[in-house]
Amino acid sequence: MPHPTARKQLTSSRRVVVKIGSRVLVQRNGRPDTRRMAELVAGLAALRREGRDVIVVSSGAIACGLQALGMKKKPTDLPTLQMAAAVGQSRLMAAYDRLFARRKCRIGQVLLTHDDLEHRRRHLNARNSMLKLLEHGVVPVVNENDVVSVDEIKFGDNDALASRTAMLVQADLLVLLTTVNGFHAVDARGRRRRVDFLTDVTAETLSHATGKGSFFSTGGMASKLTSAAEAARMGTTVVIANGRQTGILPRILAGANVGTLIPASPAKPNGGLSHRRRWVAFFHHAQGRLTIDDGAREALLKRGRSLLPVGIREVSGDFSPGDLVDIVDLAGQPVAQGLSEYSSAEIRLLKGLKTDRIRELLGTEAPGELIHRDNLVVPAWRNAP
Ligand code: GLU
Fold first, then answer.
1. Which of 20, 82, 144, 149 has most ligand 1 atoms within 8 Å of CB, for mutation?
2. Model pLDDT for residues 311-321, shown as the tens digit of each residue
3. CA-based R_g, the chain, Å
4. Domain range for residue 333?
């Protein structure tokens, strides 16, 4: 799809997720920038009035908390960061509530951890409650639940949280607001230029990405591009733009050439993946690794089959049934990922055995597959470098 068409299509976006980074909301001196916040809320409320569904993913809890607690330095220990998040999150929400109420808009706080979206039932619950809020015209304001999040259950940064939120609610558009005018790359003449249209995020693209997060924020441009590529692959168009520019949201939604546009690709809804496979591909952290032989690799990639214990050569890590594992070939190259039916300890005993032998050992009810094909995803589906 050519660039002007993709820009024009933004005008008809029905469901929009807007991620606002800490650097957009907090001034250099650590104080929340209430003027900026008010301006963004005006833009968000206008989108709502136009009848669009609006979801906000907002950072800034830790920054607001540090300021409220009079802490000049960002602490490095987890409990102090969690304390800052607890204090800051309520202040952040109070500010949003006041600003949205002035514009006759209701908001609802949604705090998530990666863990919440990894468990199937909680994942569906989170989706249902978010859809219910939208049905009632409420704007969900989402953040990571930093008060209980520890590294193992974190999304990583709010760019990843925003792309997962876009997938969860099947948004048409994801806007990542930062403090630069989009992604910049060096052109043939050696000048840094804004890239206004990006159809493919490759390792080469990422090598141009600068910025590694800051005092308050976690993600830099590389994390934005990776999250954008994943969302685009699942059917959401992404715009990375400058949240400090006045009127940025109405301009994006009017189809103006601002920021960097990454169009949804391919045109198929959800990238052609079932809801379940999307959940497997994007909402899990791998807990272990299986090395498979060439026959199993062929069966998975060429014939779309399930993974059987007979094809397993090596097991690493310590995982339970239902956990996500990486599957690599004998050369160590990634082949797929999937949810294991068996624990790592069981696979160590069963690897190389045929299904008949496994059933002799464990009974006829034992799953013949180690990973059922419905629970398998190949890296190409994620399309992130
Ligand atoms: N959840 C963090 C906060 O609200 C921000 C994380 C991020 O910016 O990526 O402070």
1. 144
2. 999 999 999 99
3. 22
4. 286-383
